[in-house]
């Protein structure tokens, strides 16, 4: 790469010619539909239709639009995560600065939320759940993202060079701001927060066929959250879409055309490397719902049990997650293996609960299990699974055991 020193307004700025463009990274040959959506997002930004920062939440996340201004996705940059160095919302920075002893979630790796979002979508796809809007890791650059003063100065310097010295300026691979890596989740339309619909359903009970649909969708959400050990599932970060068929005589007419769907969004605080500490358990808030007291249906068992009970399937899933997680600059293979040990334990518990006909609330009351690659030592009751893995039962009961 050629480094050229330009003096702009009396300020010396090093301009590095080896910049990268988002197009160098955003290749999805196995998913042309997703690739087309990302291309539309890039074209929109190039034509001045910039992503819009979302006011809610504690991080920098953005509604991404197509060239016509329609929202097509939600982008969450790694650098703008709750404790990222470029988080534009000062509350988390103040928290980190003033309350370091209570900083973050001690069971999660910092600044890997974007990977957790994409990994949740991968698990959803592998298990055939269909509740997580498609999410992948992408690179985007936009003036509306939060950049450091240095990055913005470099961008201005490159533009100046291109204008004043075109032959040299053309050597820059990228003239604008550097792309940010993050998760891109497809935007879902017609959904509202689960809390809204759950209150409606209490006042207006659902017809039996729709109630069964809701129960089936709810069980898929439970399966997802339990496998990835989501530490942030409240009734405000999963969505429900209820499409009614029509009206007759002033009263709702429900037919086979009516349907109900769940969308599990905000999956960035999952895949812990250890089970949450007892004093801060991060419970699954859906466990308080009446749907959690109903035993898993035969439909759910037929969907996932054969896969979850197959060690080859679980190993393939771990390998797919490895290929995704290792792309992060801060990737640590030892910590990743600990994350997978927790996930394997969750899979083991879920498999047994499905076989025994348990309900979601009974599932979360089961003792915590870690399944790690065989080695000597360890705490709790240890059982060897063949020659490859060791199963450890933790003595501490989970949060819900007191119910």
TrEMBL record:
<dbReference type="GO" id="GO:0005524">
    <property type="term" value="F:ATP binding"/>
</dbReference>
<dbReference type="GO" id="GO:0005802">
    <property type="term" value="C:trans-Golgi network"/>
</dbReference>
<feature type="domain" description="PI3K/PI4K catalytic">
    <location>
        <begin position="48"/>
        <end position="373"/>
    </location>
</feature>
<feature type="signal peptide">
    <location>
        <begin position="1"/>
        <end position="22"/>
    </location>
</feature>
<dbReference type="GO" id="GO:0031901">
    <property type="term" value="C:early endosome membrane"/>
</dbReference>
<dbReference type="GO" id="GO:0005765">
    <property type="term" value="C:lysosomal membrane"/>
</dbReference>
<keyword id="KW-0333">Golgi apparatus</keyword>
<dbReference type="GO" id="GO:0046854">
    <property type="term" value="P:phosphatidylinositol phosphate biosynthetic process"/>
</dbReference>
<keyword id="KW-0808">Transferase</keyword>
<dbReference type="GO" id="GO:0005789">
    <property type="term" value="C:endoplasmic reticulum membrane"/>
</dbReference>
<dbReference type="GO" id="GO:0007032">
    <property type="term" value="P:endosome organization"/>
</dbReference>
<keyword id="KW-0472">Membrane</keyword>
<dbReference type="Pfam" id="PF00454">
    <property type="entry name" value="PI3_PI4_kinase"/>
</dbReference>
<keyword id="KW-0967">Endosome</keyword>
<keyword id="KW-0256">Endoplasmic reticulum</keyword>
<dbReference type="GO" id="GO:0004430">
    <property type="term" value="F:1-phosphatidylinositol 4-kinase activity"/>
</dbReference>
<keyword id="KW-0443">Lipid metabolism</keyword>
<keyword id="KW-0547">Nucleotide-binding</keyword>
<comment type="similarity">
    <text>Belongs to the PI3/PI4-kinase family. Type II PI4K subfamily.</text>
</comment>
<keyword id="KW-0418">Kinase</keyword>
<keyword id="KW-0732">Signal</keyword>
<dbReference type="GO" id="GO:0005886">
    <property type="term" value="C:plasma membrane"/>
</dbReference>
<dbReference type="InterPro" id="IPR000403">
    <property type="entry name" value="PI3/4_kinase_cat_dom"/>
</dbReference>
<keyword id="KW-0067">ATP-binding</keyword>
<dbReference type="GO" id="GO:0007030">
    <property type="term" value="P:Golgi organization"/>
</dbReference>
<dbReference type="GO" id="GO:0000139">
    <property type="term" value="C:Golgi membrane"/>
</dbReference>
<keyword id="KW-1003">Cell membrane</keyword>
<dbReference type="GO" id="GO:0005829">
    <property type="term" value="C:cytosol"/>
</dbReference>
<keyword id="KW-0963">Cytoplasm</keyword>
<protein>
    <recommendedName>
        <fullName>Phosphatidylinositol 4-kinase type 2</fullName>
        <ecNumber>2.7.1.67</ecNumber>
    </recommendedName>
</protein>
<dbReference type="InterPro" id="IPR039756">
    <property type="entry name" value="Lsb6/PI4K2"/>
</dbReference>
């Amino acid at each position: 790469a050629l480094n050229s020193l330009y003096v702009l307004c009396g300020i010396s700025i090093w301009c590095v010619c080896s910049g990268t463009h988002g197009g160098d990274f955003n290749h999805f040959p196995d998913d042309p539909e997703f690739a087309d959506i990302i291309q539309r997002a890039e074209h929109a930004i190039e034509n001045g239709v910039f992503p819009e920062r979302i006011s809610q939440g504690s991080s920098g996340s953005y509604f991404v639009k197509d060239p016509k201004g329609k929202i097509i996705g939600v982008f969450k940059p790694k650098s703008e995560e709750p404790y990222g160095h470029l988080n534009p919302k000062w509350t988390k920075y103040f928290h980190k600065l003033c309350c370091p002893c209570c900083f973050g979630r001690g069971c999660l790796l910092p600044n890997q939320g974007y990977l957790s979002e994409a990994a949740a979508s991968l698990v959803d796809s592998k298990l055939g759940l269909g509740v997580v809007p498609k999410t992948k890791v992408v690179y985007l650059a936009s003036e509306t993202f939060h950049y450091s003063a240095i990055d913005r100065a470099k961008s201005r310097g490159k533009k100046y060079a291109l204008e004043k010295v075109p032959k040299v300026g053309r050597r820059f691979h990228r003239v604008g701001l550097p792309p940010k890596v993050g998760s891109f989740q497809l935007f879902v339309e017609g959904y509202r927060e689960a809390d809204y619909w759950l209150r409606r359903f209490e006042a207006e009970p659902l017809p039996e066929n729709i109630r069964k649909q809701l129960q089936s969708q709810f069980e898929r959400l439970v399966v997802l959250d339990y496998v990835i050990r989501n530490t942030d599932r409240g009734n405000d970060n999963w969505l429900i879409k209820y499409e009614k068929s029509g009206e007759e005589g002033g009263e709702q007419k429900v037919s086979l055309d009516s349907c109900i769907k769940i969308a599990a969004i905000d999956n960035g605080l999952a895949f812990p490397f250890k089970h949450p500490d007892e004093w801060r358990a991060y419970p699954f808030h859906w466990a308080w719902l009446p749907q959690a007291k109903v035993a898993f249906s035969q439909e759910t068992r037929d969907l996932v049990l054969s896969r979850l009970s197959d060690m080859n399937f679980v190993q393939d899933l771990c390998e797919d997650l490895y290929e995704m997680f290792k792309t992060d600059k801060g990737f640590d293979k030892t910590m990743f293996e600990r994350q997978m040990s927790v996930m394997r334990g969750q899979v083991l518990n879920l498999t047994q609960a499905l076989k025994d006909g348990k309900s979601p609330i009974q599932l979360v009351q089961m003792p915590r299990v870690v399944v790690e690659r065989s080695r000597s030592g360890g705490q709790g009751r240890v059982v060897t699974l063949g020659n490859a893995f060791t199963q450890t039962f933790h003595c501490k009961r989970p949060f819900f055991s007191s119910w």
